[in-house]
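Morning - guanosine-5',3'-tetraphosphate inputs below, output right after.
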Amino acid sequence: MSLQQEINKRKTFGIVSHPDAGKTTLTEKLLLFGGAIQVAGAVKSNKIKKTTTSDFMEIERQRGISVATSVMGFAYRGKQINILDTPGHADFAEDTFRTLTAVDSAIVVVDIAKGVEAQTRKLVKVCRMRATPLIFFVNKMDREGLDAFDILDQIEGELNVSVVPLSWPIGMGQRFKGVYNIYEEQLSLFRPHAKQSESETIIISDIKTDELEEHIGEEDAAVLREEIEMITSVYPKFEKEDYLKGEICPVFFGSAVNNFGVKEMLDCFVDIAPPPLTRETNVRLVQPEEENFSGFIFKIHANMDPKHRDRIAFLRICSGEFKRNTNYLHVRQEKKIKFSQPTAFMAAQKTIVETAYPGDVIGLYDSGNFKIGDTLTEGEVMRYVGIPTFSPEKFRIVENNDPMQYKKFYKGLDQLMDEGVAQLFIRTLDNKRIIGTVGALQFEVIQYRMEHEYGARVRYEPLRLFKAAWITGKPEDIKAFTSRRKRDIALDKKGDPVFLAETQWTLNSVKENHPEISFSFTSEY
Ligand code: G4P
């Protein structure tokens, strides 16, 4: 098969949702369709369960599961589908944001009862930054929830996207009868407690036909006709091109746990979702069909076994063909490396691959060479851009608790930051190390991993900060500002200056007084 054919075959995407909306359940159903797993329950949720007391062994166990399910590949209708898993837990949102840079499209799961939730907002925002094509799956139609039009309004209003429903529910909860697949003009009837194969699909290309009454009764048929008419007049006609540009988002309705409405979405996804896309580097755009291999690391996972310190770095292939045991340029380190055990993941199975193509994600065993954002090429000096890092929301000063173990302390911190567990800032005034995270859980994870993996005992000191804002401007302005505000300045891992704002008010007033400086809550790896 030619490189072009390999590329056209691939669809690499992520499923995102607020925890509990049904991401894991949907993933599992997709894998069942693809034959990647045979029984339900084979994919364990990688979400860190919402325990208030953190059980570290549980976190460790779940981290292990999430390595296995980081990438789930399966074949469906002649396509190679790669699902990149994203942690649902809000405290690990940064990990999810980075994973979203490695996908070409995404599916957003929304719970009909809960509507758009906090994590949905954040994750869709990140997708919108890159104009990632999105499909929405409104889940749990077997339960009572919002009116279907209301959920569409909510998605549009709160997420700032335009939607086009491609399937439409008939009733909900106890009265849920099924969906009308607008995309394929078919009626799928919901049989509660029936197996997926027993759900009935009827081709109804003209919903005016009396046949509709036979299947769903007079009342529902009338409502459906009326609603479909409304949809046609209110929402734009579905155009694949608009979806690919990220301008409209198709919406499907269903019930993942009942495997209902999922196939409709998957079939449409396979038709419309983009193959591996052109990607941006600091010097030029790279086309997937270019002969020379290139790719970037978007995720690093430490080994669970403390005796083996090696890690797995996840590489998204962006162009050309990746070959095992071939020398590639590690651009940041300016050195050649080859990989003898590049690993592909298929649900819970791992296999060593000889070759991999754009859109694929492979795991590379790493003894500390990689950082998130690193680029590998066949020799060209370029760096993939666009992996975002956001201002943390929680901060603590981290101190070494064992004066004899400074080396271990620095090494551990360094490696955990390379993995992207949290962000480290060094305050210029006193060289104190400040750890910034999205959630409180990471502080405990860091403390635990520092001790168990690196033999370094750490303690934290509280630090009340609102946000860390990256500052840019003319070099002389930055110099003047940083020396005036020394107390509030720190350097990030790349050595870029950040302003540590104690409160929203301080930040606003500093912004007002220093129009020559730009403050940003986002940076890039
Ligand atoms: P997540 O990965 O997005 O966090 O969600 P997950 O799939 O784990 O689903 C969260 C809960 O919602 C699960 O119930 C799951 O069974 C349920 N669920 C998923 N899809 C549907 C649906 O279409 N209808 C209904 N009624 N429920 C659905 P749980 O009780 O938390 O877990 P479990 O014991 O069922 O696994």
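Note: Confidence is low (pLDDT under 50) at residues 45-54.

O.
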